[in-house]
Amino acid sequence: MGNDQASTMKPSCDASSAGGASAIPRSPSSAAGKLLLAPSGPDDENLLVPYTQDWTHKWKAPQCPAVLQPRTTGQVAGLLRHCYERDLHVVPQGGNTGLVGGGIPLANEVILSLANMNQIISFDAASGILVCEAGCVLEELDAWLRPYGYIMPLDLGAKGSCQIGGNVSTNAGGLRFLRYGSLHGSVLGLEVVLADGRVLDMLSTLRKDNTGLDLKQIFIGAEGTLGVITKVSLQVPPAPAAVQVALVGLESFEKVREMVMLSKRKLGEILSAMELVDAAAMDVVVGKAAWGLRNPLAGGSGANSPFPFYMLLETSGSGEAHDREKMEELLETALDGGVVGDGTVAQDLAQAQEIWKLRELIPVAMEEEGRVHKFDVSLPLSAFYALVERTREALEEGGVVMGEGGGVRVVGYGHLGDSNLHLNVSVPREAPDPPEVSRVVSRVLPWVMEHKGSVSAEHGLGQLKKAYLPQTKSKEVVGVMRGMKKMLDPKGILNPGKFFPDDA
Amino acid sequence: MGNDQASTMKPSCDASSAGGASAIPRSPSSAAGKLLLAPSGPDDENLLVPYTQDWTHKWKAPQCPAVLQPRTTGQVAGLLRHCYERDLHVVPQGGNTGLVGGGIPLANEVILSLANMNQIISFDAASGILVCEAGCVLEELDAWLRPYGYIMPLDLGAKGSCQIGGNVSTNAGGLRFLRYGSLHGSVLGLEVVLADGRVLDMLSTLRKDNTGLDLKQIFIGAEGTLGVITKVSLQVPPAPAAVQVALVGLESFEKVREMVMLSKRKLGEILSAMELVDAAAMDVVVGKAAWGLRNPLAGGSGANSPFPFYMLLETSGSGEAHDREKMEELLETALDGGVVGDGTVAQDLAQAQEIWKLRELIPVAMEEEGRVHKFDVSLPLSAFYALVERTREALEEGGVVMGEGGGVRVVGYGHLGDSNLHLNVSVPREAPDPPEVSRVVSRVLPWVMEHKGSVSAEHGLGQLKKAYLPQTKSKEVVGVMRGMKKMLDPKGILNPGKFFPDDA
After folding, report:
1. Backbone angles phi, psi at B490, to 5 degrees
2. What is the per-residue pLDDT across B370-403, written as a single tens digit (0 to 9) for each?
3. Domains, chain B
4. A329 to chain B: nearest residue by CA?
5. Which of A256, A114, A275 is closest to A191 using CA atoms?
6. Which tens digit of pLDDT belongs to each residue from B92-107?
7. Hey, are the CB atoms on B212 and A478 less than 8 Å from each other?
């Protein structure tokens, strides 16, 4: 206690064992040591696949010649300088877990993988300030911090593969956003290499520093179009002494909205997650027999979901008895008042993890159902679930075969506390999308814009949504964005054809 | 409950009554209604004084011809376009409470005051999202939000005069930073008028929106050099149901550091302020007989401070009984373990306000002592108070007359939880600074840089500290900052001669 000297450690965060189950398989790391990875013959043709395709098989680079895997900032700077002088295009890549094609080349760009820059540089256990390289895997950082009594300020389904540099580059949100807020608040500093190889050292370790423009902010969420993030300094929060997880079932979305308000009021500062799972999403996950998951509110039958809506509530606090009392009072009030129909609180860590899996494995389960149209939108709670209902209705009206056993499935889930909805529409892989499905999914984002939502709450723009930028931001704002790009990467070698719309 | 439709209200926030005492006198508002304020004769010579001088009398505009007071964004745009076309220089100004001369003209710039743009535009009581004009006064916004069960995410001594636009432009920190974090996290959107009159509408009301670069971030803390903030959208936190304030006395700074760790551990998520007041600061405030304040740990005598250090601890939580239990347990542990020598918890709001005044009135009390050299720095806790001790020692060694009754006074206070120290050195106004004082104060910021601190934790650069920018940030980083300025204000009409160092 009382020791706040910065303690410098140099273990690889690869070396620490990761805690908890990961929803997304790790990339193979057989060729991890090499600076340049390029196929040398027919035996090698799959060498680059973990980098040139994403795990959902939606995005695929047509002809990526090589993957660069630098180990130091100096190497990143040297490689970028080389590429810049020769007008070679570069796609920076973290854990390749993005969902909008932002990290996958469009043509013959080389991939600059940060995977080999995975060292923890320093951690100050008194202040909770972590400095590490961009390629550190999120889950491994979280596990590394736990013995010091700290956790990472963000958590997401891809935690077992995604890298902190990619998280920052995409301004990742995720499951702890409600409690610990945006990366714009918790990132204290960055080291960034610009397109021409200039290194911007903005790696502050101070909570407060008002000297000059806060330049690092512009790289948070820039999706690798303005520079390559090589190091990150983060304020990480203390690990909560007590965590509780509850699952409640609700009869309508109106009740869900009531429960959101009630939970905020009753749980206050210990509320750390408030997730929605609709009945269709619950059924898809519970339906994967091999996973052995059950809906704890379904009774012994294992039949279909007894409620149209579920909410997962998590508290993270410093006093177990106090936190339990608050949670019990919330559930009592909600049950007595008819806001929830049923509810259960996990009695141990294993039960808590089972409940979390019901939420976290939804995207993985949907991938097994077919090709998935994924929508990640912000919507006011008043319009939140109407989007899912309208999508379902429009498909039904169009005569599309819906439901289990080969039909199109529509599920809604997401972060209620942040008004962030994930709408997934799966279509069996055997055939191309029926025209009616294409028509309905093409109307989702326009509907979101009409209802004053965001067409990308947390996944970013990448390839998938870049065309929407001019529809959601004014001409003047997009003009200044282009000015920033022009200033920092005048030749446009970084992540070309992404993020900014084509009509330049 | 369950109503999260955006409710639009149009009251002036001037109309609501402000709660709590304000440390800094409000500007006179006799001429508030006029778009253009300019002296028309000798009777008018003091008309512009509230705008052309700051309250500490340190900064004074030599020949400001006029103050512009637009009421709408359109007027701001029109005025800036006019100035831009004619190369007229403009200083944007909020409540004129800054401490580094950032809002005071250097030569003949006109002042663009946002004081008349003081309307609340909308507030959504379900989500806690407030949209208002830049000229709304911080304390009035806070008072306006309270009936809805919300508070502002920041609080500072100047709250009675400072404006939210100025707060955002200077990335103000203050007393709630520990709990609610940086404005980079809580500002959801901004409307900004660029130097040439272009309006950037970035006024999002969504908690999450990853569509395009997060441009608004670059204007937070830019001190009016890149554009004029006209509207602000903010995520505001729920008002805590229970607030407790405690004051403890400690025998050494080593004990202070122990208490910081202990308080973080015991109070966890309800800890909302952790302020340092040293004995010299306590004595200056208690010594202002007219204020009638007493040190509650001094016994009946009213004599000088019995402890070398004090800490003010505040909790803000949702459960009064729980919070009281946590605070009591902390104080018991700290007293039993000899970490603190004595302590008291305010029994009601009046007592809590009395304790807060002991901290908040330090800068006002110091102004009465003389001309004040103010330092606002970030330092690791290991070096935190050493700066105050070294400054005192160096002055004593130099033979400077110290202490009450006409001597130089050196006080240290500030935000322990954020490692943010305020060091104040007051010199009697009767004569210019003795050379020894000048020598010692000139060494403060170099010492901070040697100890890896920030020369401006929260006050910004303005006129006072712009020369330090190239010493604290690399050539490449300052180069990109200049590039941003050049892109957004190519003629350099906004706040010229500030923020950026001269050697352009």
Report:
1. -60, -30
2. 999 999 999 989 899 999 999 999 999 999 999 8
3. 36-113 (3.30.43.10), 120-235 (3.30.465.10), 240-360 (3.30.70.2190), 369-459 (3.30.70.2740)
4. B319
5. A114
6. 999 999 999 999 999 9
7. yes
